[in-house]
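Aim 2, interim progress: modelling of the calcium ion-bound target.
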Amino acid sequence: MKIGSWVLSLSFILFSLLLIGFQNCSKIDLEIASTEEPLFAGGKLQLCLPNGLTLENVLVQNINLAFGNSGLELDSDADGLSDASERIFGLDPLKRMTFGKISDRLCLQFSPNGNCQTITQNCDYSTTPLGLNMCEIELLHLDTIMPHPTQGLDSDGDGVIDLFEILRGTQPNESDATDDPDRDLITNFQEFQIGSNPLRFNARNQQNQFTIEAQRMTDPLFLPNCPSEKWEVLIDRIPFVANAKEFIDISGSSNEGSLSFSRPRGANQILIALKVKPDLGSSGVLPKIYFRSKIVTSHEYSLDGQFTDFTFAGEVFK
Ligand SMILES: [Ca+2]
Ligand SMILES: [Ca+2]
Ligand SMILES: [Ca+2]
Ligand SMILES: [Ca+2]
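Predicted structure of the complex, ligand included:
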């Protein structure tokens, strides 16, 4: 009797372990649909902020991964559409702007057949600091929401840069960071923080989330020569895949100091965006956006850095 119930318990445990194993496998399949298993990038930022500023948020995205039909897929040209989706719609997976004027993701959004040659005839192709051109800004009416000193950064002032919103499908022209369009009880902003799809119910997929933890530091031994606010940001488990083809961006003109989408074969581009705002004692100072592009390969795991590694993109009103 005793041995019988013991065998029964053991079988139950084995069955449960098997079941957990299967569940984990299916979760991974749902999230990562690349031909290669993802590698993970992480690192530590030690930031000495400019005087009078405090950190509003840090967001990180691998711009060479896009959400496709079956999860995260390779997006070689960083236009927000995976290579596989582009082939389905007859777009070029190695051109951000197959028709030359707006990024392919916006092309599909405004012209669902992927045929957007006729959109925006006369506009300025030169890119703003974070990779948008005036054709895209005018098409999305980003220039009419708020008259920021620099356009195309965080036009709606919700803390998520326009580029990330376009790549992931949230609204760059509407403050929607606290919205939850996919009703998974994770707000859009939280989805950006953990790297999940803001347009797809995925509350139960805890498996492949990444983490970004920012903490204000008061320890005098941390950045001892910093006279202003000090922050430590821990970034972990940002997924990347190593099978990307080389990408050379030929869309529009890239201005000095603005984000470039080009990168070598086998590498992914991980973009870190900082939004800083005036601290309580500062008046007449506007919020600012800084960015850092990190080219990551299979041999390099580190996103370590300091504030001086970041490029100033511009100021926003909110
Ligand atoms: Ca693409
Ligand atoms: Ca493309
Ligand atoms: Ca925004
Ligand atoms: Ca959500």
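Residues 12-34 have pLDDT under 50 and may be disordered. The first strand starts at residue 39 and ends at 48.
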